[in-house]
Design a protein that fits this description.
About 30% of the residues lie in helices and about 20% in strands. The strands form 4 sheets. Strands 3, 4, 5, 6, 7 and 8 form a 6-stranded antiparallel β-sheet that branches. Strands 10-11-12-15-16-19 form a 6-stranded mixed β-sheet, sandwiched between helices. Strand 7 and strand 8 form a beta hairpin. The termini are far apart. Keywords: Hydrolase, Protease, Serine protease. InterPro entries: ClpP/crotonase-like_dom_sf, CtpA/B_N, PDZ, PDZ_sf, Peptidase_S41A, Tail-specific_protease. One of its GO terms (biological process) is proteolysis.
């Protein structure tokens, strides 16, 4: 029997070696032809093959080869950082559908932390948001199934399902003595990327909930409508990026380009390969898909100069941090709110064939002034006086998160927020944890929006709340 296992292991080494070689050749085909391919770790692959053989021969139940190999791929990617992952056929399809703004589920952005599922942010106007799921909630049960030990992919599959079907989610929330149980009904999640309204004549409000394929076009339409409907010249514009988990990079560039001068640097990336080193500017070649008409070319000229305030919080991540950082660094907008999530890494979706793909972290984002967003986020110019999310889950709290490469910067940025909150922690303890539901952004009860309007009108926030940081 042992000889059979050894032979099977050797064959598997050959198979794995062949696959790795083909993947390596495929990967370097896009790189400089002078780059030398790294040699394969034969000893480690042999150990891998031995483990495979032992599972096939000795595990208590028979396991399909496909399942073992898929789980091995998952393990390689999950072990790298919180955002790299393997996408099977269904997940790859859902990712493609999701960028169009419609998919099935509950409306929760989640990540994996120490074998458990944590909520990054509930998406507005979804079952999860309406039920009161909050950022930082730790999901411990899905129906009667414990989450501990699942992969993130497995947990997401349990949360997904046919519309109108029910699921019970049990969460542990900081500050609550007992687990909270939410009975949700799955639905088709249709995300309205851009929402807008006139707060009063001369003052406009634009909220971006997520960066999707057509966010740029939707923003352009909203701007034109707001300027045409205002009975007074525009005196102030509030861009709300709170709880915006990010999305497509070209959408972030488009939103930034709407407010910045032409050719202004929006963001740049640094990675190991030539393809991972990008500099994206505020002009059409960086935000248009294909050769379509430039939907930003006929915006009102005042959109480049109208006073702006950008609202952010701990749920603002990725693409929303890129926009906030670009507007802040170019001194185009005051950034108001609390420290952002700090998701400053680039995930590239690399198709593998058979309708599967891997989502691989390939670079880090930097604001125009060279500040790394990764694990730090954007530090507001004016800190939110009513903030209650200083203890929210952020990128720096995730295990295996990638450091930003700027020694000391992460600590100083986070400490600024922590020190501010420490002085008022006793007062804040009784706040939002006791509320019956989430505050509707843009409503008359939105304290940060009121603060922004007061700032525009000269009822300014106390100067000691301002930060010396220019971003990232």
């Amino acid at each position: 029997m042992s000889n059979i296992v050894k032979k099977a292991g050797l064959v598997f080494v050959g198979a794995i070696t062949g696959v790795m070689l083909s993947l390596n050749f495929s990967a370097i085909a896009k790189r400089d032809s002078t780059e030398i391919m790294h040699p394969l770790p034969i000893e480690e692959l042999r150990t891998f093959a031995q483990v495979f053989g032992r599972i096939k021969s000795d595990y208590v139940e028979s396991v399909e080869d496909k399942r073992l190999i898929t789980e091995a791929i998952n393990g390689m990617l999950v072990g790298l950082d919180p955002h790299s992952s393997y996408l099977d056929k269904d997940e790859y399809k859902e990712l493609q559908i999701g960028t169009h703004g419609e998919f099935g589920g509950l409306g929760i952005q989640v990540t994996m932390e120490d074998g458990l599922v944590k909520v990054i942010s509930p998406i507005e106007d979804t079952p999860a948001f309406r039920a009161g799921i909050q950022t930082g909630d730790l999901i411990v049960k899905l129906d009667d199934t414990a989450v501990k030990g699942m992969t993130l992919t497995e947990a997401i599959k349990l949360m997904r399902g046919k519309p109108k079907t029910a699921i019970k989610i049990t969460v542990v929330r900081e500050g609550e003595k007992e687990p909270l149980v939410f009975n949700l009904v799955r639905d088709i999640i249709k995300i309205q990327s851009v929402k807008s309204k006139l707060l009063e004549p001369g003052y406009a409000y634009i909220r971006i909930t997520q960066f999707q394929e057509y966010t740029g076009e939707s923003l352009a339409k909203a701007i034109k409508t707001l300027f045409s409907e205002s009975t007074k010249p525009m005196q102030g514009l509030i861009l709300d990026l709170r709880n915006d988990p990010g999305g497509l990079l070209n959408g972030a560039v488009a939103v930034s380009a709407a407010f910045l001068p032409e050719n202004a640097l929006v963001v740049y990336t640094e990675g190991r390969t030539a393809d991972a080193k990008m500099r994206l500017h505020a002009n059409p070649e960086y935000y248009l898909r294909g050769h379509g008409r430039d939907y930003l070319q006929d915006l009102p000229g005042e959109i480049k100069t109208v006073p702006m305030i950008t609202l952010v919080n701990g749920g603002s991540a990725s693409a929303s941090e890129i926009v906030a950082g670009a507007l802040q660094d170019h001194k185009r907008s005051i950034v108001m709110g609390s420290q952002t999530f700090g998701k400053g890494s680039v995930q590239t979706v690399l198709p593998l064939g058979n309708d599967t793909a891997i989502k691989l972290t390939t670079a880090l984002y930097y604001t125009p002034n060279g500040h790394s967003i990764q694990a730090t986020g954007i530090t507001p110019d004016i800190l939110d006086e009513s903030a209650d999310d200083d203890q929210r889950l952020r990128e720096a709290d995730l295990s295996r998160h990638i450091a930003n490469g700027q020694k000391g910067e992460k600590k100083s940025a986070v400490e600024k927020v922590t020190e501010e909150s420490a002085n008022k922690s006793q007062k804040e303890e009784s706040k939002s944890k006791k509320t019956s539901g989430p505050i509707e952004f843009g409503s008359e009860d939105d304290l940060l929006l009121i603060q922004a309007m007061n700032y525009f009108k000269g009822i300014t926030t106390s100067p000691e709340k301002k930060s010396d940081s220019a971003g990232g």
